[in-house]
What does this fold into?
Amino acid sequence: MYEHDVLIIGGGLAGLRAAVEVTRAGVDVAVISKVHPVRSHSNAAQGGINAPLTDRGDDWQGHAYDTIKGSDFLADQDAVEIMSQEAGEAVLELERMGVIFSRGEDGKLGTRAFGGQKVARTFFVGAITGSAILHVLFEQSLKLGLNVYEEWFVTKLIMEDGVCRGVVALDIKTGEMHTIKAKAVIMAAGGAGRVFEPSTNALICTGDGLALAYRVGVPMMDMEMIQYHPTTLARTGILMSEAARGEGAHLLNAEGERFMQKYAPDYMELASRDVVSRAEQTEIDEGRGFDGNVLLDLTHLGREFIEHRLGYLQEVSVEFLGIDMAEKPVPVQPGMHYIMGGIKTTVDGATNVPGLYAAGECANVSVHGANRLGANSLLDTVVFGRRSAVHALDYIKGVGPASRAEEDLASEKARLQVLLDRPPGERIATVRDDMARGITKGIGVNRDQASMEGALENLVNIKSRLPGVSVENKGKVFNTDLMFALELEFMVDCADTIVAGALARKESRGAHYRTDMTERDDENWLKHTLVYKDDAQEHGTRVETSPVTITQWEPVKRVY
Amino acid sequence: MQVNLKIKRFDPTDSGGKTWWQEYEVDVHTDSTVLDALIEVREQEDGTLAMRCACRASICGSCGMRVNGNAKLVCKTRVESLSPNGEQLTIEPMGNQHVVRDLVVSLDTFFDQINRVEPYLQPSFVPEQGEYTASNESMENLVTSMNCIMCGICVSDCTVLEVDSNFIGPAALAKAWRFTEDPRDGKRDERLKALNDEDGGIWDCTRCLKCVEVCPKGVAPMDRIMELREAAIEAGNTNTHGYHHSESFYNSVKKNGRLDETRLAIDSAGMFNIPRMLDLVPIGLAAMRKGKLPSPMPHKSEDHKKVRELYDSVEGESK
It folds into this structure.
């Protein structure tokens, strides 16, 4: 058995930023992650990180309003205000830690344009911003001697009298189960993209953190808000950063037309992501696409510029499709990319369960509302990763040691043994793919009552098949098969909350676009959906709502 | 498209460790990567196969393994490029690292090496507010090293690590370069001296180019190591085996038009370095027995004047 004052689940940007904060306070902390920290999905963020820097003539209100407008007024404005106000210092601090941000002529940080914003306030490192920040935070973790449980998989949160007291986890390398007690747990375990197929997300983004919290009574907020990124590479689904359009790339249909003219004449290709993805889908559906794609055209930017500023995009375009972006446009399509929804938290990262905090993609503060702006996700991770740590540090002052941990260990061992002992049945991957394709079909760029009910029906079928899924690998060392079975259960929980949230919201807002209810309904739906786990209900979910916090920006019609 | 895979398996729990080869055949899309084929095996043929993978887009660094003898990021390697006519692909875990199970190696070797170079910024001052001022060129220069995704592929195929596990290794040295070249770092001289003096440091690279060849991200670790050597010499670190070796090499070829190997050995060690000289004796005797001892007398090549002209020409250009 292990014990720490603060335990952070996840070693991506939110987790490492939180860990740096706790370590600096001289408090005992550990990170636990199913992958080594530098393998985390934060790596995949390409384009940059937003911050309004006042000494560059920008102001936090401008960034806040763009974020709120981008969210289709579903974001909580108090949370957005905090994020915008703390953004500048958060980014500058990353620079001082060693991030090699691009510079202007004066040797100060330079910016590029990004979607949904008229001010260029996105700080970046080529098209590897997430990776460049993650590796620097990892450097800091080495400097601080951070304790990391690498390749440990959390199977359960330990609860004692309604308070979170640690975790039970599987050491993947040895196959042994352990308890790790903690006075506070910060969930920073990332998103749930694999609930969908295809998705830009890494294979590790299986919603573990969301499901762990959901199972102990934390509501999942606005789970219907799924971001489809407008530019994912044809066939492979690999992300092509918004930075391409930020740097001037055009979107063309089969007629060679810059079709965004029709949908967002003012912002064109740099409208909000939901708007651009929907426009692409319309072009494709109305027969003006290429084999289910539109074209992303960078040819006018020139080879040197492309290789300099967007090197990673050129690398994947050449590697995976054999297309030189300086010569030819690349085919792209909308692809599932990010979940705006997640574990409901306060602006300090606190959940309704004492001792449990959340930050990053698994959390919903809410700053992204119904649609996240590009380059706000990295910002979210560092601002709220830090804040959750600060609050957790305060919370643990009055917390004593846990007592019940060993009971949970025994029950978890028994639960996993049942999985291992199942007779041969359906393959994990088969059930997972059927689930993910069903969810993607029903909860797509466009959706309606029938498609969402179809997703629910499919999910009911999946849940009936779950007990028949078998784990082929019976070994102990590095048994990923067992882990995939557990991940599948997590993903099904996430799918439950997504479908429940989507069916509940009777309007179109941001990413939740219903072709049978195309208007936003502020009178009835300017509120969050909260999905609770409730086994007494038919589908195991109970949906409630909560009001949106409005501070100074009244909702208006959203035009780009 | 049918893909034929021959995979090296390892089970550490089976009577103290059992290694075997297993063949699989799977059907995948023509554009598929080697990773796609391996995932197909794991998901549809054999759930006991252990490997790491995550992003599928060559950015997380999880899926390094050897394909047909060379370490590769399998998510970035298309089946067709190695097997245009359905040839069998041989898949093994990476080299120079302890195998945990099947295609999974321990990360300890890699990160122990990284830790040896104090891999974090050590600035001489921290601005009270705002950022450090630095030229864009100086930051873009560092992208070469920040492109490193810590996949371990260069470590796997490093020919020095194969015989000398004490070598800091290509990835860690490329990481070190990222700090010696960072204008914000305040420990440049100390870092260069340590990398120069340390056993297993910059002079242990044999310039075989293998890391440059296999690195999937263009980090070109060997080039970074050569830049570290130049920087270390410029910073005055000249009293080392490595520096004497390259200096002797330079002088010998310049003077004679060819390498005087005896002189090279003596110069590298230092004439008055008695223990090292004594170390050389058995090597010399062994070489003599095999008829491979170079003539102790320096002799000039016929065209040594032309070689001298080459020196002058190259040095003139660089001035």
Notes: Chain B touches chain A through 58 residues (CB under 8 Å). The first helix of chain B runs from residue 34 to 45. Chain B has a mean pLDDT of 93.
